Amino acid sequence: MVTDILRRTILFIVLCLVQCLVLNHVNLFGCATPLLYVYMAFTFPRGYPRWAALLWCFVLGVCADTFTNTPGVAAASMTLTGGVQPYVLEMFMQREDESDFKPTMHNMGFAKYVYYTLILIFVFCVAYYSLEMFTFFNWLKWCECVAGSMLITAVLVYAVEHVKR
After folding, report:
1. N or C: which end of the chain has fewer CB within 10 A?
2. Cα(150)–Cα(140) distance, rounded to whole angstroms?
3. Which of 108, 88, 95, 99 has its CA nearest to residue 41?
4. Of 25, 28, 38, 57, which is closest to residue 117 (Cα–Cα)?
5. Rounded distance between C-alpha atoms, residue 137 and residue 152, angstroms
6. How many CA atoms lie within 13 A of 20 on its CB side?
7. How confident is the model over 9-32, as a mean pLDDT?
8. Of 56-60, 66-70, 95-99, 103-107, where does mean pLDDT reach its minimum?
9. Rounded to two decimals, what is the model's pTM?
10. Please, are residues 36 and 157 in contact by the beta-carbon 8 Å criterion?
11. Alpha-carbon gap, residue 154 to 115, rounded angstroms
12. Element (H, E) at 137
C-alpha cells in the first residue's frame, strides 16, 4: 500500500512537471496540444477504490489548471475520465482476471490497450475542449482540437508505455 502511494506520487509529480514545463508550450497547427497527464487515469488497477482514483485525478487536474490558467477545465475532465476508467477497463477484460489486474500494454495486449486508451483519451479530450470552448458555434475548430490533441496524446501515451516496459 505504501509503495503504491509512493509510485503514484512520483508519477503524479513527473506528469505534472512534464505537462506544465514542457507540453503546455507545444501547440501544433494551433489546435493540437499534448495532454499527457491523462495517463495517470489509465494506470489504476481493477480493484482500486473508485474514491481514491477520483481523488488522484481531481488533484492532478487542479494542479494542471493552476499552471495552465484554465479554471476547472482539467479538473473536471480528469475527474470524468477517472470515473469512467473502471467501466472502460471492464469492457476489455475477462471475468476470470484477478482483482488487481493492472492495465498495461504488456498485460492487455497491444490491440486491447490501444482501444482502451483511445476511448479514455476521447472522453477526456471531448470534455476538456467542450468546457474550454464552451460553445459549439465553431464546431470545426472544436473537432480539430479534439482530434489533434487525441492523436498527439495517444502517441505520447504509447511511447511512455513502451519505455516503461
Report:
1. N
2. 15
3. 88
4. 38
5. 25
6. 18
7. 82
8. 95-99
9. 0.88
10. yes
11. 10
12. none
- Residue 100 CA to residue 85 CA, distance in Å, equals 14
Provide the 3-class DSSP secondary structure of residue 109.
Answer: coil
What amino acid is encoded at 44 in this protein? F
Q: Tell me the backbone φ, ψ of residue 32, rounded to 5 degrees.
A: -105, 110
Taking residue 138's Cβ as centre, other Cβ atoms within 10 Å add up to 11
Q: How far apart are CA 84 and CA 106, in angstroms?
A: 22
Find out whether 144 and 124 touch, Cβ atoms under 8 Å. Answer: no
Count Cα neighbours of 161 within 13 Å in the Cβ-side half-sphere. 24
The cell 496540444 sits on which residue?
Answer: 33
Write the burial class of residue 117 (CB in 10 Å: 0-12 exposed, 13-18 middle, 19+ buried): buried
134 is written with which cell numbers? Answer: 464552451
pLDDT at 28: 78
| Residue 25 per-residue DSSP state | G
Counting beta carbons within 10 angstroms of the beta carbon of residue 109, is it exposed (0 to 12), middle (13 to 18) or buried (19 or more)?
A: exposed
